[in-house]
Design brief:
hydrolase activity, Rossmann fold, P-loop_NTPase, 20 strands, six-stranded parallel sheet, about 10% strand, about 45% helix, 4 domains, 25 helices, about 700 residues, ATP binding, alpha/beta
Length: about 700
């Protein structure tokens, strides 16, 4: 996303920012500050000082890691803006790197990159023979900044990079975050905090008190949550999947089992019947059609229909019927998307599903009421599609019965509640002579379009001059047909900044780092999932007298629990003692790791030869949650060998291809070298774990 014509970045630090920058200089540190409190400015100043300590920009550089592609350009621009008034832009080049971009030139001083892209650079550079030193090796990096450092967990590439920094390295680590962990439970918060501190070898945890922030004009913590759902997550739809049966990895299986056993909600059963009928109608004309619903990947259902809808022709089908088939596939695509909404919400979100279908209704009205024929049968004749269309119309007819309005709206409780909240917040700002700047947070990208449609549809919201716009990452489309381009996202932010748009409907992308102007009303349409999201989203309301409305809570993630987790983190930061953390008994972690390795070691037996050694090793590493690194040292200009290094908290094991055997320094040669080293490492691990 573009930094998008933002006002010039401050050229001086606030008092708490100066204090923190001084404190973390030359130490491994994590800075914990709420969204909008200036973590990036602190990092930019630490970066400047780190480079200043080097003799010149060509000695050791700074790696600035960001978790998503949309933050690469933004954070690079922020560093450049900090360098500009100090005359450092030309002497200290700031480069951007992510997948799809050319390899950066060797003279960079600061590289802003995504972790996967940088890991690929490191691996590639390690395989190449050069008389010049490797600019991507840790010994050439003075400072590594982890933006949104809470991602250093599990199998995230952040953690893989963090664990690959040698303990003897002179690379300093600086982490930035609004919350140290996603955890809410007290014991889990402490355990997660201890782990990230240990793995990054942190010496300093820094934050600013509420008094410090307020004294310097920061208001992001002032908005106390208004809870509109006092009882955590009341199931407004009866008969949905019980909470005890909700296992995410079995989501798809659970849904279809309920369909087969006739225990699904009537809405879900009706939608599936309608889709099956539409599939049969299509299959009679297009004999190549195969229902994608057997796939466990719910996103692939609509992708299949979308691909079919763009086919030039269908074998054995006339041109006139091909045109009809194209339209039918478009309709099927929309119904697959609607079904996905139900599946991933455990059948709860039928109101979102129905509103989405209403948004797409123009595309399938033609099939119901048109005269076109497919396979000699008029489209929709005697079809459930007619009944389902009437059902959607019925559920979406005027909210006069539910809210006393005479305008077109929705009888659904959540949509009616959102309407009430938006009108109230607009009236509050109007009464103070201020303009509304609101943000509605939802969990997925498709919901941004559905709520945008609902708000534009409602006459009362239009009359109140509430002008919405969708915002999410341009790297990931909402559906095969719904996406936001980079230019559209930048234009939306520009219009929000100047007031032409006064309500953003957005996803987590607006919580985490994106340069969004300060808002004065935050609405959580969906339940807050974790402590990070709670702190980041609230921090977007940075104007004085802002509000933060929570429309729904999870039973295990209530606002009070999230606030308690935040308070506990602050206490941990204030009491942080690096000596105490390093002395913490890690026996529990070691016991868990030994258990994982013991359970996974039988899989190493499948490595019977060179052909399957790499696969067996990769599976073992995945199951044990350890780190595996590879190097391809040059033996001669044209040949290389391979060394693999396995590291966990209980063992460190390395293996190399035999010293008397070399391999051509090309792709195939390196693959062969890695197979040999992998087999050696498998044997070493087996011996080590006897």
């Amino acid at each position: 996303m573009e930094h998008a014509h933002a006002p010039h970045a401050p050229s001086v630090l606030r008092r708490y920012q100066r204090r923190i920058a001084e404190r973390v200089l030359n130490q491994n540190a994590i800075v914990v500050l709420p969204t909008g409190a200036g973590k990036t400015l602190i990092a930019a100043e630490v970066v400047r000082r780190a480079l200043e300590q080097e003799r010149n920009a060509g000695d050791r550089g700074v790696l600035f890691l960001v978790p998503t592609c949309c933050l690469v350009e933004q954070q690079a621009q922020a560093v450049r803006e900090w360098f500009a008034p100090r005359g450092l832009v030309e002497s200290h080049p700031v480069v951007e790197y992510m997948g799809g971009l050319a390899r950066p030139p060797p003279d960079w001083a600061v590289m802003v990159a995504t972790p996967d892209a940088f890991r690929a650079l490191q691996a590639r550079a390690g395989r190449e023979h050069s008389e010049k030193r490797n600019r991507f090796a840790w010994e050439t990096i003075k400072l590594c900044v982890f933006d949104e450092v809470h991602h250093v967990l599990r199998d995230h590439p952040y953690r893989k990079l963090a664990l690959s920094i040698p303990p003897t390295s002179r690379t300093q680590v600086l982490g930035l975050t609004a919350s140290l962990t996603y955890a809410v439970d007290e014991a889990k918060v402490r355990l997660a905090t201890t782990r990230i501190v240990q793995e990054l070898r942190v010496q300093v945890l820094e934050t600013a008190s509420a008094a410090e922030l307020e004294a310097d004009g920061y208001h992001g913590n002032a908005a106390a949550a208004e809870i509109r759902d006092e009882v955590p997550v009341v199931h407004r739809v009866t008969g949905v999947v019980p909470a005890a049966q909700r296992k995410p990895h079995q989501m798809n299986h659970t849904f279809w089992q309920r369909i087969r056993t006739h225990t699904a909600t009537p809405f879900a059963a009706f939608l599936v019947c309608m889709i099956r009928e539409l599939e049969q109608e299509i299959a009679r004309a297009d004999h190549s059609f195969e229902s994608p619903l057997a796939s466990p990947r719910t996103a692939s259902w609509a992708q299949y229909a979308n691909k079919k809808s763009t086919s030039r022709s269908f074998p054995g089908v006339s041109n006139s019927e091909s045109a009809i088939l194209h339209k039918k596939y478009v309709q099927l695509e929309f119904f697959y998307e609607a079904l996905k909404i139900l599946v991933i919400s455990w059948e709860e979100d039928q109101e979102m599903c129905a509103m989405f279908l209403h948004m797409c209704k123009g595309h399938w009205d033609e099939a119901v009421h048109g005269e076109a024929k497919l396979g000699g049968v008029r489209c929709g004749e005697g079809s459930l599609l007619v009944d389902f269309g009437a059902f959607v119309d019925l559920t979406l007819t005027g909210c006069s019965a539910s809210s006393g309005s005479n305008s077109q709206g929705t009888a659904f409780e959540r949509f009616a509640s959102l309407k009430e909240i938006l009108l109230a917040k607009k009236a509050e700002q109007d009464s103070q002579g201020k303009e509304l700047r609101g943000i509605v947070f939802v969990q997925n990208r498709l919901s941004t379009h559905v709520l945008d449609h609902f708000i534009r549809l409602d006459a009362d919201l239009r009359a109140a001059a509430i002008t919405p716009a969708c915002l999410y990452s341009d790297k990931s489309p909402a559906t095969a047909r719904l996406r936001i381009s980079k230019g559209e996202a930048a234009e939306t932010l520009r219009r929000f900044r100047i007031g032409q748009v006064n309500l953003l409907v957005t996803t987590v992308v607006a919580e985490e780092g994106m340069d969004i102007p300060a808002a004065n009303a935050i609405v959580r349409f969906d339940p807050v999932l974790n402590a990070v999201s709670f702190v980041q989203g609230r921090g977007r309301a940075r104007q004085a007298d802002s509000s933060h409305v929570v429309m729904a809570q999870r039973e295990d993630r209530t606002v009070s629990q999230l606030a308690a987790a935040e308070s506990q983190q602050q206490q941990i930061i204030q009491q942080f003692d690096p000596a105490e953390v390093s002395a913490i008994d890690t026996q529990q972690q070691k016991s868990a790791q030994l258990c994982r390795e013991s359970q996974a070691k039988d899989g190493l037996k499948s490595a019977t030869g060179l052909e399957n050694a790499v696969a067996a090793l990769n599976l073992f590493v995945k199951k044990t949650k350890a780190n595996l690194s590879e190097k391809f040292p040059c033996v001669t200009i044209k040949t290389c060998s391979c060394t693999l290094h396995y590291q966990s908290c209980v063992r460190t094991t390395s293996a190399s291809s035999p010293p008397n055997v070399t391999f051509p320094k090309n792709i195939e040669g390196r693959k062969k070298a890695k197979r040999v080293a992998a087999l050696e490492l498998v044997r070493a691990l087996q011996n080590n774990m006897k």
